[in-house]
């Protein structure tokens, strides 16, 4: 049996540690909807999808080409039930996670873990290229457990870490939407392993798209 990655093990850990820090997002715009509203277009490109870890570029279409607005590192749950098998298949084929579940009538909730900033330097060649940014630059980071609910059933679907383009979302904007309780040094320490993985994915590798 394949051993779960450290990132996937954090899903179970964060359910226990942050279950009280929940914020229903079904009445809040999805990331895809907010990007489309703010920039006039939206697209998603899956850069990596192996071992239940998915790395995605959520972008807007600009005159000089696509610009990454959200860089998402997602740890998908290894326990996928039959009630959302169709949606899970669509997501594995490249579908936008929130949009797929919303279209299928699922309620989407976010159990927040961390809101903060990450400074990228010259080694972060993948993210700076996708976002068309000069380094050093500071990106707002949001980490949360995504839960889906429908017909009396609720499932922890994915642990998601999102880094946002500074023209799209800042720490101040995220705190205004979700609350400032999720920021701070203690939360950053709890999110350390996930942040390290995100920083690793910022770099161009042989698997980058």
Overview of the molecule:
The protein is α+β, with helices and mostly antiparallel strands. The chain has one domain (6-201): Chorismate lyase (3-Layer(aba) Sandwich). It contains eight helices and seven strands, in the order αβαβββααβαββααα. The protein has helices at 6-18, 31-39, 85-92, 97-103, 125-131, 171-178, 185-190, 192-201, and strands spanning 22-24, 43-50, 53-62, 65-76, 107-120, 137-150, 153-164. Strands 1-5-6-7-4-3-2 form a seven-stranded antiparallel β-sheet, sandwiched between helices. The longest helix has 13 residues, at 6-18. It is globular, with a radius of gyration of 16 Å.
Largest sheet data: 7 strands, antiparallel
Low-confidence stretches: 11-27
Count of structural domains: 1
Q: Kindly state the number of beta strands.
A: 7
Oligomerization status of the protein chains = single chain
Helix content: 25-40%
Order of helices and strands: HEHEEEHHEHEEHHH
Beta fraction of the residues? 25-35%
What's the mean pLDDT score?
Answer: 84
Structural class: alpha+beta
Q: Tags for this entry?
A:
single chain; 209 residues; alpha+beta; Chorismate lyase; seven-stranded antiparallel β-sheet; 7 strands; globular
In short:
With 209 residues, this protein is an alpha+beta fold. It is 33% helix and 35% strand. β2 and β3 form a beta hairpin.
Topology:
Layout: H1 6-18, E1 22-24, H2 31-39, E2 43-50, E3 53-62, E4 65-76, H3 85-92, H4 97-103, E5 107-120, H5 125-131, E6 137-150, E7 153-164, H6 171-178, H7 185-190, H8 192-201
Antiparallel strand pairs: 1-5, 2-3, 3-4, 4-7, 5-6, 6-7
